[in-house]
Amino acid sequence: MIDYDVVVIGGGLAGFSSALRCIERGLKTAVVSHGQSAMHFSSGSIDVLSHSPTTGEAVSNPFDEIAELAKTSSLHPYAKLGEKRVFESLSWFQQLMSKHGLPLKHQGSLDNHYRVSSLGTLKSTWLSQPYVWQLDQNFSALNQINRIILVSIEGFRDFQPEIAKAKLARLPMFADKELLTVKITLDTSGIAQRNCHEFRSIDVSRLLRQEADFASVCSQLRQVATPNDVVLMPSILGNGDGLALMEKLAAETHLKFHEVPTMPPSLLGIRIEDTLRRAFIEAGGALHIGDEVTHGVFKQNGDQLSLACLYTRKMRTVPINTKFVVLASGSFFSKGLKAEHHKVSEPIFDLDIEDIGGRESWYSKHFFSRKSHPFMNFGVSTNREFKPLKAQQCIDNVYCAGSILAHYDPIAHGCGGGVAISTGFHVADAIAESQESACYAQKLSHSQQPNQSQKKGALV
C-alpha cells in the first residue's frame, strides 16, 4: 500500500503545474502519467486568451477580456478564477520555468504578441521561449530588421519555407521586407531512415549534438545571413539541451533567430515537458511514468462522497491511498474523455459530463467553421471549486484541471495553456488550504481535550 497527500492523474501542463504547486505547499505528491503528453504536439508558447469566447474577435490584452467573462461567460474556467488569479498563476509558472533554466517572456504591456508559424501565418500568444521572435500589436519589431531568411534543411520534410514565404509576402506588414529562402545541408548518413527524405526534427536534433555537424550549420548560416536579419528556422535543437544549443548557435553566429515549431514531435513543446518533469523530480515528487489509473474506490460518509483509494494498471491489486486527487487527464486526444457513437464519458471514475445533446449537435457542418465545434467544449461537470460530480453528487476530495474541464474551447479561444496552468495552480492551493484547515482543526480538538492529570484532578 502506498500513501500520498495528493495524486495527480496526468503528466501534461495542467498536471505538472498542479503537482509542482502541491509540493511547494508541503504536500507529498505523485503524478501518474501513461506516457508522452500533448506538449509534444504544442507550439512551446503559452496561449492565455487570443479570441473572445463571446464575440470571437481577436483579443489584445487577455486579462482585460478575462475580467469581462464573469458577465458574459460565467461558466468559463477563467470566469471562476478571475483575472487576478489567472495572472498570479502565470507569474508563478514563469518564475518556476526561469528557475529551472527555461525563461518565458511576454510583452511589457501584458498584451498578446504574434509569432510566425511554420506556414507563415501569425499566431497570437502570451508567453514565448527566448528564441521566438515576438511581434507586438504594432509590429514595431519589423523596423529593426532588414531581411527575413527562411531556412530549410535538405531532406527535412516538416518545414517548407517556400510556403511560409508566400504566406508572409501576402501580409501587408511584411510588404516592404525582403523574404529569402535558403537551404542548408547535413550529413544524414548516420540517421536510420527509410529514405533520405523522411527524417524528423528529433533526428536532426541528434545530429546537431555532434560538434562537426553543429559547426557546419553555423558556417552555412553565417554565409547567408547578417546580424540585421531574422533567421526563421524550424526548431531542430532539443533532445534535453535544446535551449543551451540555441544559445551556443546565437553566440557563434551573432544572428537573430526565430524558432518555428514543426510537425510532432515539437521540440519547443518537449522543452517545456522536460523542464517540468525535471523540476518535479528534483523537488521530491514521485513520478509513476508509463502507468495509468484504472479506477477508484469511493466511500459515502453521510451526505459526502469521497475517493478512498486508487488502482493502476501496473500496481493492479495494490491500492494507492491518497487524501486528494487532481484529475488532469486531458480531453479526447489524451484519453481523458472517451467518445462513443452516441455517448461521451470520463473513463476512470465515470464522472458526469456536461449536457451534450444528440450526436448531430456535437459538431458544425463545416469543418473549418468560424464558430467553435461544440464537442471542443465538452468536459466534466464541476462546481465553482472545480470539484467534479458523480451521479449529480460532488466528490469532496477530487479536483479537475486543464482540458478535462467543460465550457471552453482551447483552440478557438486560444487559451489552452493558460487554463491548464491557472486551474492546476488554483486547485493545488485549494487542496493545501483544505489540508491546513483539517490539521488546524485536529490540533484544536486535541488541545481542548483534558490530559490525564486534569482528569485525575476532576475525580478528586
Automatic annotation (TrEMBL):
EC number: 1.1.5.3
Catalytic activity entry: a quinone + sn-glycerol 3-phosphate = dihydroxyacetone phosphate + a quinol
Database matches in InterPro entries: FAD-dep_OxRdtase_2_FAD-bd, FAD/NAD-bd_sf, G3P_DH_GlpB_su, Metab_Enz_Cyan_OpOx_G3PDH
Known pathway: Polyol metabolism; glycerol degradation via glycerol kinase pathway; glycerone phosphate from sn-glycerol 3-phosphate (anaerobic route): step 1/1
Cofactor: FMN
Signal peptide: none
Parts of the chain that traverse the membrane: none
Function: Conversion of glycerol 3-phosphate to dihydroxyacetone. Uses fumarate or nitrate as electron acceptor.
UniProt-recorded name of the protein: Anaerobic glycerol-3-phosphate dehydrogenase subunit B
Protein source organism: Vibrio maritimus
Gene: glpB
